[in-house]
Amino acid sequence: MKAGAIQAVIGTAVLGAVVLAPPAEAAGTGAQTVAASCTAGLFRGTVSVTYQLAGPTEYHPSIATIGGGPYIGDSATYVLDVSYAGADTTTSVYRGTFTGTAGTKLSVHLPDDVKVPQDVPSYASVAFDGGESPCTAKAEIR
Questions:
Q1: Is 118 exposed, middle or buried (0-12, 13-18, 19+ CB in 10 A)?
Q2: What was the pLDDT predicted at 43?
Q3: Which of 1, 2, 27, 99 is at 20 to 30 A from 142, Cα to Cα?
Q4: SS3 at position 86
Q5: Would the pLDDT of 44 be above 60?
Q6: Coil, helix or strand at residue 69
């Protein structure tokens, strides 16, 4: 029982260190972060995405942090979409829907198989909708 508790604490500490790494540490590992925001009336939505190389031709967006406020409604919906643009089409490689209310801040860990090509425009966007003040924040992965 003690060994399991110690492993759980170590696992939590390691996970916390990865999520909360300051930008200087992230840059040393090759990770980059991009951010975007949108406003509608008093509401402001934000998204930041951390990504890194995933081989010679792709990026892997690994963490998206989403926030909004001061108020988005009692049944706020955040739709996170990771996509890339081809010649005539846009391809979505990840789509997730989340809910929250005023002051909600979410960190979404994206699956390892979420990848976008390096040679075409790629984006992480979040559509915020709480009824009265919808907006979309779109960050370019470059």
A1: middle
A2: 81
A3: 99
A4: coil
A5: yes
A6: strand
